[in-house]
């Protein structure tokens, strides 16, 4: 969990962790004091700088002291030093925060709005298809728009006009409608920037459309059905460059005012969220074709049986890892958050009677992450909040989980704190101070050595997590999204999404590609290949606390969802194809095993999701949720409040760590 979490736009500075932790437990500001900031608001140009000054004043307006510090909630857009030097990096409206302590050591905060002006648009270019259209068709006008500072701008800021609207015209939504044969010039203008494209409208030759689909006439909710439309002329020849528009008419089985219960994409892919009868229509100009399809409920729901529960009520529980020990028994390790630096080792051979068999205590406030090597011999735990500020990682001998021994502590270059880590082929990938990850050789666990580091160079960049699969490290980088880095992969001739790999190593990490999305909430990533289709996906999970984390007597309501990303056609062409979104809740960690996704959905508990077949749309609405379990306990760290942290499917069981109630062992009933 990242308590110095994003505002609705981006992550707050990692240096404020202890400050935010204090606020989470209800410390109130003293109303007798306030922070006075000069100026109270800022208006900047891109790359312009300004200076903020702040003082703490009492109820009479008298200055008490000037120990006021500043930080940015949108570091990639507007930066600020602790002393108040501000610089506009990207256009938009943002917020800076000032914080200070009263003479009684109570916390004060103030918000400073900042508006960074948009530079003038200087370049407009038409993109997309060439300038020829068939009469009675339409297509979007696509533009590349940049401004004086090189920022990409919204094409909606550009005015589009036609030289002859009787031949073709542009509507208010940027769609170019071809009406009759002829030629027109389309003009795009924004300020002094102008671009023109000549478009020729020709006779529409289509007289019929052949509409086909793969599979049976009956399908299930969540199953993707592919329709193919072939527009033909009077001689029966297919007109390959004719644009086809798809739409649908829906008659759900239970029609009680709900929104459209299905969708069809521009490429003819259809998926239904509700059972019913659907008619898919394909149009080319004024010619139509249609097909009807029946959709049944997916009907895959199962119950969850609680096999065992080990309550941890005196401290928050963080991550977990379950493994088979060298003695053949089954073990788990869980971390602790905001405690005394403890990691608990459990015997889970009998999940109905899980017991702590050893405790490792290190100098830390939080042991956030715990990992075990594939051979079950070496463990790594991360440290944050060490009293000596060394933090880093602790390497453990776990061959005998009843008597775990510390092999070494490693903090070289890691003093800012390690939030997450991953073990892969004798190397630890340690997320360092939320800025980069260090790659540490632990082939000799008593003498670890940093062999390289990977860090982005984008403004305000940050990283939260990293997961390594088949020699590729997938890091979660908040605003910069998921970043794939080759750290020792082997090219696979039959895998198109990996044709560029094979050039990196732990000593020489090589970036392959990335995918980001507007919220900037990217918190975790998990790569997997679909068992049923062979398609390769990367899951990106969100984390955000727009309502605060835990303020006194106020429940925590996180936000965010699961994004399914495909790197089709190479690492430079990522595409988000589906999502899984539980309303009024937010995700944390997750795991894929076979064609099943296990999500610790924080306040919404554990969710088990069917991800078989091609994925499209919102899986939550398609009946793909197999099961759910919301763990609570009246003697939990926060009583009767679920906050599921991490799942681990293992040998037919689902182990779940919950922030408030400890370790759970669950099983799906038949």
UniProtKB/TrEMBL annotation:
Residue span, BIG2 domain: 31-112, 120-200
Keywords per UniProt: Signal
Stored SMART domains: BID_2
PROSITE patterns noted in UniProt: PROKAR_LIPOPROTEIN (PS51257)
Superkingdom, taxonomy of origin: Bacteria
Parts of the chain that traverse the membrane: none
Region annotation Disordered: where it falls in the sequence: 490-509
Signal peptide per UniProt: 1-26
Record-given protein name: LVIVD repeat-containing protein
Organism listed in the record: Fodinibius roseus
